[in-house]
Amino acid sequence: MNRRHFCLSLAALSGLPKLGFALTPAATVPQTALIGAAWRGPNAGDTYQAGVLAADWDTKKLAIRYELPLPTRPHGLLAEADGGLLVIGVRPGTWMLRCDGNGKIMQQISLSNEGSGNSLNGHAVLAQTADVIYTTETETKTGRGKIGVLDRLSLRKLDEWESHGIDPHQLVLDQNGHLIVANGGVPRTASDKKFDLHRMDSSLVKLDGKTGRLLQRWQLDDKRLSMRHLAWSDSPMDGKRYLGIAMQAEHDDPLKRLAAPILAVLDGEVLSVPTRANDGVVGYAGDITAAYNGGFVLSSNQAGLAQLWQAGVPDQLTPVVELQEAYALTSWSGPKPGGGVLVSTAPGLVRWHPTAKPLFLAWPKPMALDNHWVLLNEA
To answer: Which positions make up the signal peptide (predicted)?
Structure first.
């Protein structure tokens, strides 16, 4: 671990009390956390794995509860009610895998076995009615974005809707059970190679959660900003609910990528870019999660940086963790008033919270995490 970079995250923390934060005794912090994650070995070509990591805050140790090999690269993970995981392959992958809370594989399906010509784009979400799962997909022959509607129990495809864009990536539900989908807008070949970026058409859309009908569509002025990852955050200060959209720049000009913003925010009905602050490297945010006071933390793995955005200071991004390969994020409640984040980095897990001391836990073995992980429970 680069001690200087970790100290920088402590320095960022020391500057936050001016926003009204105060340190809380460590005794109030939950002592364990179970985290669903996907990773591979440290070398390119190593087998991908998914499983559950157990973080013991008291002993400062990480352990692998279980792990299982995967066919190809995974991406998003969906926590299930029984403590299990739904792991979703990413383009050009077509597989989806479900395991129980002990790591036993319960189901594994492939879209290709159902005669579908689609590839999965790495994300899924459970419907408000809890009877179906929605997935983001691409029709490989045409490049059209699709939303798969799958039976929750069997994972059999029941329906398929238009995403009203191309390259649909993450999707979330709003309070009415409708889908909000980030269409990344990047044309790709069947083998996942980008091409014709001048044709990019990124958009954020709202679809009826029962019929797939297009209800609303938003776009940014800069067509080379690909909207990809999504997170809701509720603000106790103003009662608003914000949708944060993590973006990646696809400009041909390196200087434009260097200056590209990485965050867009949907505030009610208005989509905007609240700050031009970015990662200082390539304009790339790999993950986003809810954080303190209706804010978000965004990770930029190529910059080794996780940054906090808050609605109260919308023009700023505040570094909270600076370590190589800061990547997967998940919200962590910690001591009240909540708002913490668990960040995966190259050397291990960093626990950050605005009112508790940061903590670092080394990986139990050499491993490189993918973009996302999910908190299953804490006690």
So the answer is: 1-22
Give residue-wise pLDDT tens across range 109-142: 999 887 788 999 999 999 999 999 999 999 999 9
Whether residue 344 is contained in a domain is answered as yes
pLDDT tens digit string along 319-359? 999 999 999 999 998 876 679 999 999 999 999 999 888 99
Q: Print the domain residue range for 200.
A: 3-16+31-378
The whole-number pLDDT of residue 304 equals: 97
pLDDT tens-digit map of 199-228 = 999 999 999 999 999 999 999 999 999 999
Q: How far apart are CA 99 and CA 122, in angstroms?
A: 17
Distance, CA of 68 to CA of 70 (rounded, Å): 7
pLDDT at 8 over 50: no
Total domain count, the chain: 1
User: CA-based diameter of the chain, in Å?
Assistant: 58
Instruction: State the Cα–Cα distance between residues 346 and 359, nearest whole angstrom.
Output: 15
**Would 22 be classed as within a structural domain?**
no
Q: Phi-psi bin for 343: left (phi > 0), alpha (psi -120 to 50), beta?
A: beta
Asked which of 23-37, 129-143, 148-162, 316-330 is least confident by mean pLDDT, the reply is 23-37
Contact indicator for 149, 134 with CB cutoff of 8 Å: yes
Contact 283, 262 (CB under 8 A): yes
CATH assignment at residue 93 = 2.130.10.10
> Which residue spans within 167-240 are E strands per DSSP?
168-173, 179-183, 203-207, 214-218, 225-234
Nearest alpha-carbon partner for 244 in 270, 267, 269, 215? 267
Residue 116's nearest CA partner among 136, 97, 139, 132 is 139
Q: Is residue 26 part of a domain?
A: no
Task: Please report whether residue 149 resides in a domain.
Answer: yes
Is the whole-model pTM more than 0.85? yes
